[in-house]
Amino acid sequence: MELTIHPSATMERLRERLWQALEARRVPGFWLYGSPAQIGRWLAYHDAYSPSRDADTLRRLYRTAFDVALARLGTAQLDQGRLDRARPAGAVPGRAGLHLVSLGCGGGGKDLEALAAFHGPRAGAAGPRPPDAHYTPVDASAAMLSEACGRVGAAFPGVAIHPLVADLEAAPDLAGWWAGEPSARLPRLVTCFAMLSNFEPAPFCAWLRGLLRGGDVLLLSAHLTPGGFPAGAGPILAQYDNPAARGWLAGALTELGLDAAAYELTCRAVAAAGAVAGAGAEETWQVAVEAALRRSATLAPFGRSIALRAGERLRVFHSNRFTLASAAAVLAAAGLQPVQRWSDAAGEEGLFLCRRAT
Ligand SMILES: C[S@@+](CC[C@H](N)C(=O)[O-])C[C@H]1O[C@@H](n2cnc3c(N)ncnc32)[C@H](O)[C@@H]1O
């Protein structure tokens, strides 16, 4: 398996994007997961706080969504002749293969579930070969990719894995990138979990739409606020305003050379009225974590000097929060048609199965 670096994520480009973001007083998302130490801190935080909801219930929710997504792909209007040519000899007849694209794959846990749904019960060594499966995890962090590939490769040795380092914030041309690949002939399931929260919703969704061909589907998660804003913000802020999350975010600042004594980390709810066309003020907001500078400090990442003055605020992290309606609205405005949606019992996680609107 070869790790490919997309032009959006060369060292030179990432360095440029880091400088630009810091000049705009923002830490870019990829920096939070950039080193093995940061991934360790993120995993510690994730394990401690993310399954605030019942992990099994959430897994079942994802499994249902994967089953529906795959059933939909099986009936999608893809060219059957091209699918037949893509299927290797001996593959199960009547089932197309799959190109699973996982955007911001993280450790690949949800991808394992998707591939388990695709493969179904094992037929045994003597049974027919499963259909052709290609897996493209995409992430800005090579360490995350390595983790995802290791787990998927161990569980599904027959799956062809094509890890891609890319900066999704740069809206890379991935559709063109895949056009000449063997996987291009297969139906594509694009997954995008826990990512919409970190990007500008409208341009990011427009970019996602560009990845889908006529018969492909997108499964995307959105973080929701059951009580709306501001009423429901308190319990959600607590998921970010805690020692594990602070350890993770402060770690990213330390790796920028910012002394912990030079700032105070604040976590607050910020109104985002107007972020989604047509959505009311209570339907979309942001968790914003900032470093408020107690004293001036000079950062020097990769040799570029960036001076921060006392009193300035550096945006370290943000998470967009939606309601089911405002998330559906941002998808629809970008030309993504939700065909089915689910939410967990707590109402904090929404899953949207989308296809490209014609
Ligand atoms: C919150 S985690 C989500 C992981 C996984 N999708 C899940 O649901 O468990 C965010 C992931 O996005 C990646 N990421 C952050 N910024 C990125 C960027 N600009 N381009 C590509 N990946 C990025 C991180 O490295 C990390 O793996």
Describe how the helices and strands are arranged.
Blueprint (H helix, E strand, L loop, with lengths): L3 E2 L5 H13 L12 H14 L5 H20 L5 H7 L11 E6 L5 H11 L13 E7 L2 H14 L4 E2 L2 E2 L8 H5 L9 E5 L8 H11 L5 E7 L9 H6 L4 H13 L7 E9 L13 E9 L3 E3 L6 E3 L4 E9 L2 H10 L2 E8 L5 E8 L2
Parallel strand pairs: 1-5, 2-3, 2-6, 3-4, 3-5, 6-7
Antiparallel strand pairs: 7-14, 8-9, 9-12, 10-11, 13-14
Helix pairs in contact: 2-10, 3-5, 5-6
Bound molecules: S-adenosylmethionine.
The site of S-adenosylmethionine has 17 residues, from loops.
Question: Could you walk me through the main structural features you see in this protein, from its secondary elements to its overall organization?
Answer:
With 358 residues, this protein is of the alpha/beta class. It folds into 2 domains: 4-43 and 51-87 and 95-119 and 130-223 and 323-356, Rossmann fold (3-Layer(aba) Sandwich); 233-321, no CATH class. The protein has helices spanning 11-23, 36-49, 55-74, 80-86, 109-119, 142-155, 174-178, 201-211, 233-238, 243-255, 324-333, and strands spanning 4-5, 98-103, 133-139, 160-161, 164-165, 188-192, 217-223, 263-271, 285-293, 297-299, 306-308, 313-321, 336-343, 349-356. The strands form 3 sheets. Strands 1, 2, 3, 4, 5, 6, 7, 13 and 14 form a 9-stranded mixed sheet that branches. A 3-stranded antiparallel sheet has the order 8-9-12. A hairpin with a 6-residue loop joins strand 10 and strand 11 (306-308). The protein is globular, with a radius of gyration of 21 Å. It starts with a strand and ends with a strand. Mean pLDDT is 88; it is low at 75-94 and 122-126. Bound molecules: S-adenosylmethionine. S-adenosylmethionine binds at residues 29-30, 33, 104-106, 110, 139-141, 144, 167-169, 193-195.
